[in-house]
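Kindly inspect both lines:
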Amino acid sequence: MKKTYLGFYILTLIVSIFVIVFLATGLWRQFFSPEEVEGEIRTRIITPREAEAFSATGQYDQKAWEEHLNTKIPFYEGELVAAVLNKESEEGLAEEQFAVYRNTSDALSPMHITFLSYDENIRAYRRMWDEPIAATRAETISLFSQDLIGDRNDCIIITGVNNLNEHTMTVFRRVPGLRPNEPYMKIAELQAAGSITIQETSRSLAYQQGIVTGQSFNIASYSHDPASNNMLDQIETIYSFNVLSQQYEQVRVTRIPGSQIEQRRVRELLSGVPGVFENFINDLWYYVSPQGTIDTRQYLYFDPIGREIIFYGDEAQQVFHWQSSTTTRLGLYIRSQNSPISTLLRFIDIELESLDSIRVRVIEDVRLKITVSATWDGTYRRAGTASARQPSSQIAQAADAVFDSSWGRLIFSSTGDYTITSGGNIRSGRYVFYEVNGIDLLEMRPGDGNGSESRMLYRIENLTTTMILTRVRLGTSGIQDMSEPPITLTPVE
């Protein structure tokens, strides 16, 4: 009997040692599929929250990122996902996915694109391949697909900005016959100081009906002309797809003269100092047609303080939240988000054309099936609302004044700050008095506000001893009354 118990104890000890060795050495991995293993060692998806680009945006933008990005499988710890594109597979059996990500442990390392596809052998999604791309700034990434070659085989296109503040474009194309785990090959990778655009051309009805192939699209890049002293002179470089090499190759270079304006001011605007170019575009800008005529039915309004961008066209107004902006060699690259539709993004590439005009290129979030009737690309001329701002007749910004009102005790300081004290509660923010078309206006922005509700604009009526504030809105049709009760400000002696 004792021998039986002794044998049982020895057997239990041997089994225990075997289990410990089995787990410690990782031999258990051989009995599970790769995706089951990854599910154990990977953490949740990390959404873009880079400190430099997103520290000021708060929880509002974090929620927007999380709503916008969903990957088929979790990513590794330290991998920050910047963009996701879902696409139907060539066989139509399962959805494929492309994701652009970076390793947060090395901020200067190149970003990568990975291809996630369904593997029938393991009955799960897995990474098929990873490739580096030219862009390095996560907040500037735009990922979309388009038939560039004309064979109805969509290319994967990634645009963005690198650490040198240059625009970048990387293009991958699906090529039959490659290794099964690497079905896409890189056919273009460009960097330029100015914008990089796809020159689309009309394709025949036979192409639309799937009968014949279409003409391939060219890619154009713009950079400063190094042979010119004028910083606005540019060089246009055209790239065409070469069927033999299966690559985009340079075919033409053209010099484009820029506006002859004072170069010291140009250097200031294009210095790359944060906020300089943002302040320059703080205005209302009307669209200029190719014939040189101004179209007041289409305009852009940039409000860097309120972090808003207003698009007005086809009698429709769209308000976008200004999420982040990145300086480029020739201007500014803005990432914006539609206020009511959080998944609708627009990337706005702005270049300096003159002191009164800018060139704009808008990249829509083409993953959404939304028809956009207005074309925003083109030249815009300053409307002059911001440049026309002059101190109002009674109070300038650099003045101290105290008033009593229905809000409470209102104090304007010479630093441009205001405070409102009422019943022990104190509210504060920034203010500015200015004049538009002979009408005195007061703009107030609460220090704890965000979005459109934080921008409060009032028309001022100066009486003998008091001021009357009426809430208004400033638009293309002028100053519009918002039908709110007026506020009376009485000076405190």
Q: What stands out?
A: Residues 25-67, 368-373, 385-398, 449-453 have pLDDT under 50 and may be disordered.
